[in-house]
Amino acid sequence: MHRRTRRTLVVVAAVVALLALAVFLRSKAPPEAARLLPEADGIVYINFKPIRALAHFKDLKPPTRVPEYQRFVDATGIDWERDLDQAAVALHRMPDPNGPNGPVAYSMVLVGRLTGQRLNAWLDSNATSRETYAGHTVYSIPSEGRTVRIVQIGYDMVAVSNFPTTEKIHAIIDGHRTAALPLAGSTLLREHYSEVPLLSLAWGVGQIGLPFSESGSIHVFGISLPLEADSTIIASVTPGLNLAGTLNMRMEEIAGSNDEATDQAAAMATLLTLARGLAQPLAANPANNGLRDLLRTAVVNQKKNRVVVTASLSSGLLASLAKSEGPDLKYTPLAPPAPTVSTPASNFPPDASK
To answer: What is the pTM of this model?
Structure first.
């Protein structure tokens, strides 16, 4: 009798230990949407729910929609600004940046109130071809000279890819069967996700500068940043610890050597000085005030072959950007500004804003 009791206790202890291990591994694992992504050069993930709350999206006036998008909303009942909760995007470098597929292709896993018969009907009426793969219907829709493949992979998940072949969309469907495993995911996630700060609302790993690359370098708002398009970057946005609703932005670049990191940190400091000077004469309003605060809090540290950029973004600036009706703010991707420097002052130009 005692032997049977001991066996039972051992089995129960083993089950509890396995459950505890599974919970621990899941807490350290990337979000499921990111784990579904195929092999890629860069990955970007955004959790829109807390960002919408910080920007007070529910209090904003509904934007004016272009007719084509309004027809999509009417037909499917899906409004991306309201219904999209998470987006995980894989970036794929194209071998010929000047070819028909451009410099980069993407594969996405979108999570939210997106699926249903109305979406299927819209896809079916707009698709030029269809494919059945692993029990899922993959719709092919032409868009700007490319073929976009779309498939519903779960009750709240949609996968999209404009990669030239079916390889990536098939990989997402295959990955859906193993995504519950905490160690699932691409090579890029296994190598770098552990360096993403806990509770990040948005993050990116790998060559996430690819969409902004031009002639081998990264351009934002027409300014060439001292980063190569193939730089390995780990970027994140996390909520601040205070009650003011600030967001902490962090970008870490892994340079080829310590000397290269020193040069890039110096170049970033120069850009920060220029950006601060350009921001000073801007009219006083919440957006411009927030931009000046962002530049003021920006800092760069060099740690051996890594350049670490940090800055604080106020929720007021985020809300101002959301309220803006101007196309430049609404549709142009924003990037972290160039930072100031906290490494030895002799290596860098003085801060003109002081």
So the answer is: 0.79
